[in-house]
Amino acid sequence: VSYNPWGFLRGESDARQRGADFPFGQSRAVSQASPWAWVDVSQLQAASPLHPVAVQCQEAQMVVTVHRDLFGTGRLVRAAELTLGPAACRPTGAAGSAVTFTAGLHECGSTLRLTPDTLVYSTHLNYNPAPAGNPVIIRTSPAVVPIECHYPRRENVSSDAVQPTWVPFRSTLSSEERLAFSLRLMEDDWSAERASSVFQLGELLHFQAGVDAENHAPLRLFVDSCVATPSPDRNSFPQYALIDFSGCLIDGQLDDATSTFISPRPRQDVLQFVVDAFKFTGNSSNLIYVTCHLKVSLADQAPNPLNKACSFDKARGLWAPVEGTRDICSCCEVRNCGSRRPHGSFQRQGERFRRELSSQPDPLKEADVVVGPLLIHSWQDHSVLRTPSKG
């Protein structure tokens, strides 16, 4: 176990200080509020006092550093003799006495196991020595080093303003002068936040976006865009757009989808929508994250092409708004809804602030929020009912 830049893990020395708690050749960091790594080096019979394999469990990837003196004998192994995981991924770097692997949590054939409190990503380091100059003899045996990264399901795994958790998930941007945006998975009847983030293909995902408008003039909330990815990084690939073009629920246009905004709203500062469950093809982890960009306008301001919530009505072949005139949704058909334009500035009204939109994105009036990871199962592993595209 070694230090990593996310501050998730304790150093090797901390793990060694607790060595009495674990078998020889095994170590971990014991903080239950952060991810930790587990490495079994017992096969190496290492004579070195330092662990020959160090693991950093980061937010969406693991970094494995291998000391070339793998067995603590002074004989340095070659980078070409080392691979990671069942997929035998090659090293991403080699310098001096160390070889480095950097791989996504779902890459190189790693597997995911769920426990009541953790997500456990498992893989292994492979050492396959090249044949010696004389094929009659061998001086080194192959070895396998099991590696695990453990992530708490109910704890914060990010130090950013947007803080994802496992169950129940809520992501909120909040500070003294900022609006508090939220995105939650709800029960099918919208009565409460959903207790589980595990779904089957064929189920509906019930999303509820909200904003705490307490100390503000009445506000209307909009979901500007939503994108699904297999990792928390909204810019990762593959990715699939659910909502785009300033509030067009484009997923609802697909033949096998019933995705729609719920109308009418329960309140002006809340917007609900449903999406048919799906998973990414070729992604063995079956995990998805959904990142949505939320924003507000004044409640007395009429919806327009930049501030709208539009669903596709398959029966009539038309786009329909949750509120406002139907023409504000016409740009969804051509997939070009213009750009931002100024709507005003801050004004004080008595003891309350009246917030109005400006011409530029402003963290006081909009935010990205994330839900995930969601675990999507199919009745058969090879069954794929929805196929999101790359881009």
Automatic annotation (TrEMBL):
InterPro entries: ZP-C, ZP-C_dom, ZP-N, ZP_chr, ZP_dom, ZP_dom_CS. The keyword Membrane applies. One of its GO terms (cellular component) is plasma membrane. Proteolytically cleaved before the transmembrane segment to yield the secreted ectodomain incorporated in the zona pellucida. Keywords: Cell membrane, Cleavage on pair of basic residues, Disulfide bond, Extracellular matrix, Glycoprotein, Membrane, Secreted, Signal, Transmembrane, Transmembrane helix. It is a single-pass type I membrane protein. Residues 56-317 form the ZP domain. It is found in: Secreted, Extracellular space, Extracellular matrix; Zona pellucida; Cell membrane. GO terms for molecular function: acrosin binding; structural constituent of egg coat. GO terms for biological process: binding of sperm to zona pellucida; egg coat formation; positive regulation of acrosome reaction. Residues 349-360 have a biased composition (Basic and acidic residues). The ZP domain is involved in the polymerization of the ZP proteins to form the zona pellucida. Component of the zona pellucida, an extracellular matrix surrounding oocytes which mediates sperm binding, induction of the acrosome reaction and prevents post-fertilization polyspermy. The zona pellucida is composed of 3 to 4 glycoproteins, ZP1, ZP2, ZP3, and ZP4. ZP3 is essential for sperm binding and zona matrix formation. Belongs to the ZP domain family. ZPC subfamily. This is Zona pellucida sperm-binding protein 3. It comes from Eudromia elegans (Elegant crested-tinamou).
